[in-house]
Amino acid sequence: QDAIDRKEKRSETFKTAVHGLETGTSALKAEELGRRAPQWVRDNLVTMCMRCKEPFNAIMRRRHHCRACGYVVCARCSDYKAELQYDGNRLNRVCQECYIFLTGHVVLEDREGKHKGILEKGAAEISGRSLLCSSLQLLDKNGKGGTRGWFVIPQDDPLVLYIYAAPQDVRAHTSIPLLGYQVKDLPQSDSRHLFQLVQSRQVYTFVADTEELKQRWMRAMARSAAGITLSEEEDEDADS
Fold it and tell me: For the stretch 135-151, what's the b/e string if a residue is b when 16 or more beta carbons lie within 10 angstroms of its beta carbon?
């Protein structure tokens, strides 16, 4: 009975996971799994395994695609084979979740009970329910270099800025609690659209691709910093 319960739980988890990937990826419905070829998530959209969340690197962790759901996964998480109807019922490399869903077999290793950490929010998942999300650059302390990534303020956690290395990573690189920060506009420098988050001695400097995007981020961050949890549209509806 325990094995049956785990299998059913994993099946429900998979149905949730395959629903609504962002960035142009057409997600399969659960009933289509194995019957229709998936659209693969592009390698350059992820920096970590979309199942176990371990980062990829050139030496230890190669990228593989699950032939059932199209996720980018590591070798350990794709060390399974299942018959896929769209490929003439031939055995194909699949991820652990798809293997369980397609075969009904229970894998002894159970990571499903692990508590989701604060950073373990999938970028694609929360981008679809965000107050604002886009690519930005976060400069280092001397302002000469920095990291470009995918930045999200989710609707269900509107006082926190989540920073991902890529727009379909399943775990955030870091997060910044926005409450209490001041948003500071900076003059354009070398065609760069700059603004800052400032609180006491802590300063974050961001670069947006356009002036319009910069202004949108400044408004969104200022609202979160002030503790306003509604989107601008919802706020306007409430006022009316």
Answer: ebbbbeeeeeebeebbb
